[in-house]
Every structure is written in C-alpha cells, then in structure tokens.
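[step 3/7] fold_predict: job queued, chain A
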Amino acid sequence: QVQLVESGGGLVQAGGSLRLSCAASGRTFSSYAMGWFRQAPGKERAFVAGISRSGGSTNYRDSVKGRFTISRDNAKNTVYLQMNSLKPEDTAVYYCAAGQYSRSWLEYDYWGQGTQVTVSS
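[step 4/7] structure written:
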C-alpha cells in the first residue's frame, strides 16, 4: 500500500513557475514508477509526465515538453514536478500516481488527492 500526498499548488500568473511535490508513505517507493496527471473542469484526466523507478527515464505530454520537469528522490520518497513558463491552459487539478511506467492512467494503482494549479492570464 502506498499513500500519496501532493503539495505546492496555487495561483500564479502566466509565465510564472510552481513546483509540485508528492510525498509517498511506505518503504516501497522505489518499486514504483511515478506519474503526474491533471484534470481540468469538464475534461478527462490527462497524462502530464512520468518517471521510471530509478529516475533514469522520463516522458512528457507534448504541450509541456521544455517547460515541465519531473524528478524523484527515492531517499526522500518524493516525486516533483517543476513547472515553468506556465500558461492559463495548464490550469487543472494535478494528481500524482504510483504504478507502471506508462502514459495511461489505467497503469497506475495509487493516487494522491490532487492539488489545484490556477494560472491567470
């Protein structure tokens, strides 16, 4: 069992930055790939970024490439999402998830409660 708690969301102006953190409980954090997903009002949950168990592989949705960076610290049981050059269309609830290294939410077994990110124009 893994429990995930996100933090770091908030309100920021377009062009600004935020760093999301996701702290995991348990001693098996390094056994899971981690992902960040987001869900805007009226839209389906969408893949944002993923990172492999070791952190050696990452992948991103096209619209955030070059702006967002996913990383993890297995010693701290934490995964991060650094978000730069934020745009209003990045506004959503952001969720971290633990599971298989995949772009599909179906491959993730554990989810956090989400953190709101709002980007004003």
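[step 5/7] annotate
Residues 22 and 69 are 14 Å apart (CA to CA).
The two ends are 40 Å apart (CA to CA).
exit 0
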